[in-house]
Amino acid sequence: MKRQFEVIKRDGAARVGRLNLLDKTVTTPYMLQTKEELELIREQIGENGVLKVELIDDVEKIPQGIEADVVILGGAVLFEKDPRGLSKALTTTREALNADSALYTPALATPENVSLLVYAGVDVIDFMLAEVKATEGFFLYEDGEERFQDVLLPQCTCNACQQIGELKGLPFERRVEIASQHNKNALQAELYKIRARISRGTLRELVEGRCRASTTLTAFLRLLDENYDFFEKRTPIVRTSTMLACTQESMNRTEIIRFSERVITRLKQRHGILLLLPCSAKKPYSSSMSHKIILSSIWKFRRSINEAIISSPLGVIPRSLECVYPPSNYDVPVTGTWSCDETKTVSTRLLEYLKANSFDVILAHVSGPYKDVCNMAASLQETDIVYTTINEDLLSPASLKNLKEVLQGLIKEHRPPKRDLRFDYIRDTIDYQYGTGVSDYIFLDRPKIGGIYPTYHASSNGVRIATIIKPYGTATLTIPGATRYLKSFEGHYCVYIDDFVPKGTVFAVGVLSADPIIRPYDEVVVLNDKVISVGRALMSGWEMQSSTKGGAVVIRHAEER
Amino acid sequence: MRDFKYKNTRGRKGQGAISWTGVDLLDTEQVRSLTIILRTKGCYWARSDGCTMCGYIYDADLNSSGAEVKNQFDTVLNCYGKNFDVVKLFTSGSFLDTNEVPADVRNYILNKLSSVPKVIMETRPEFVTGEACEEISKILNRAEVAIGLETSNDLIRNNCINKGFTFNDFVNASKLASSYNLTVKAYLLLKPPMLTEKQALDDANTSIKEAARYADTVSLNLCNVQKGTYVEELWKRRLYRPPWLWTAVEALKQTAGMTTVICDPVAGGTARGPHNCGKCDDELIREIREYSLTQNKAVFKTNCEDRTAWEFVLEFEHFAYGAPLIN
Predict the structure, then answer these.
(1) Does A75 sit within 8 Å of B321, measured CB to CB?
(2) A316: enclosing H helix or E strand
(3) CATH H-level superfamily of A5-225
(4) Model pLDDT for residues A393-451, shown as the tens digit of each residue
(5) Is CATH 3.20.20.70 the classification given to domain B18-319?
(6) Min CA distance, A132 vs chain B (Å)?
(7) Is the Cβ pair A106, B320 closer than 8 Å?
(8) A454, pLDDT greater than 70
(9) Which fold has domain A421-560?
(10) What distance lies between CA B12 and its chain's CA centroid?
């Protein structure tokens, strides 16, 4: 069966796609714009024609195994003012459908809510609610709606609004005409913006802003965020765009929660001396001036201690992970004050980090809100934290001197073994990506570490095993590295393909099975009986298995077994 | 009712019939009428299965006896007297169902009303029998059986309303009644659940036209949301919206002249009843009632801004796949 819908780009649950509507091809998210297009969709329902359209008329009873190009969430408009019902309906429906079915919510989209609908996985919308609102006397904008009597002058530069100099005194029907066209223009403009943001990986930032248009919409985003698993299985491992964490809702972001969980569950346990530092505006932290100053004054001791950075909203970032996403590429508003939520959440993360590891001594060279976080964690755990800053001045000669002296004393007392910090980066990044203990297997022998920060690489007997690459900061395996990996982790982060030699891009249609834990941009091992290869996933493993269209993995190296 | 059991909502407290006086059309004259709703055991159909929109079963008294029904009637008559041109007998079921109103009580009632120019009895078609018609025609001058046909469309009547009889049943009852010189009134339901506004308008137009062939009067009832009904479940989930008043007006205008069509918007202008935007509701309700008495479509003069919204709904609602576009 030839599919008429294909996903081109992904950003979480949101997709940019291509849909063949019989006589033309359109880019999704797409707005059905005319009565003819609405009729076209309706005529195809259950017809088993070229364009397969199915209708879900009861969201409580979604049939399993639907195979269709377009799936209609019947009666979607009933959720217009029901954010809880809508978040449940959308996540349930999207989860029940294949990735290569386009989800259509009739008569539900407005300029203010469409970014959230797409964020939750909607691919097709229409003009109906926008026009209904015009007939009810509303102008719709992406930041909310206005009644006709409140719009005396045009508030927009679209061709409909610019026809008229002044709206005051115009008859109702004329205003309906203008509003109807304007509302559709506004909806279309939002779609262009949304598509661009999906391509850049910044849809979440748009959504966090747009949801302020109404209380219902903000509630809707918060309710959507409660579906962690739904979004996590669709969220990429890395992005090149900067994560802007500007709102209360930013703290609920999947990437952040997943990062914190992996820091606790996937990394090798550390011992000895922990030095907590505050985060910096410049990322990665080591490249910032504050960290450079601190690190250069303690350079002698760095190989004997464990460094970790405290940050809101990411929590605790081990130094070795400062180059992975999101720590490598995020930004938060800095005012010198943290909210209660931030302090509480980050101190919980710090507590978890302390519990997951086994430190003998905890030092904190911090001040201000970072110190509050440490205090809160210390009081809850009944641990002692030694503060090394003098007079709250992080970079003063006195503070740095104090830090040095304290470290010197502790190292003399505890005699921790010296480590290769470059190896820390590679090892922790591998474990972060693949899971606990993977680095132990890959690096059974003591690997030789080379390269310059941050693109370190590990070799064994002159054979390269793994490298950290730019721009993502991910650790990639070579074929020998992958061979070692497969000895103990067959299946894990693996993609099994049909009988062909993979080159360039492997398409989903060539994938027989894939580990469902794979996320977009994960480094994966691709294999069949004849060839072993490594590459970067373009979609999640579960999507590779159930899709028939689209690129699944970009191959980096391939070799016959 | 498929998979839907009537909820145990508390019925109407207190004994006794409900009654009121009003103005009705008798041929072309406006006359005084008396309406009596007797409290019986209740509609047998509602007790076993039930129509999707009807909550009248909750007004029933399961322990009601023939004697009580007789007493109720006597009380009403003592209160109002018999000096009316039209008397309407309801039971929120079937007046001719002898389980609700035993034959002797029925005959007693009809005998008491033998001097009334016209008596109307509400009933399901299955109770329009030869014996009943015979008795009635012996006692009354002018009798009319009023049947809840709801729609002329068997599929809609069965699947959306769950009425439990066919158009043929209605036709047969109508022919039988006519053969005894009884007249027939057909109650039609504007906008049963699970129809779009346009489907509802078309259904009403067709049903009025079809019913006019077998009924002397048609009463167009605008569907409202009664407690404890399947329609209420849909309405709460935002899957049902009572009809727009514009739709009722349009149906009356388009069928004007076919037959006498009367309409009384119950709960008009409220969220549970037929409504428009709120600004024109009162005026339209008044016009609809005036039309019922005059049968003159020139009474419909009001225009309102929400007509554009209604027209959009008519044209596009079926692309919303099951939910109303505007509430």
Answers:
(1) yes
(2) strand A315-318
(3) Queuine tRNA-ribosyltransferase-like (3.20.20.105)
(4) 999 999 999 999 999 999 999 999 999 999 999 999 999 999 998 999 999 888 999 99
(5) yes
(6) 6
(7) yes
(8) yes
(9) 2.30.130
(10) 20
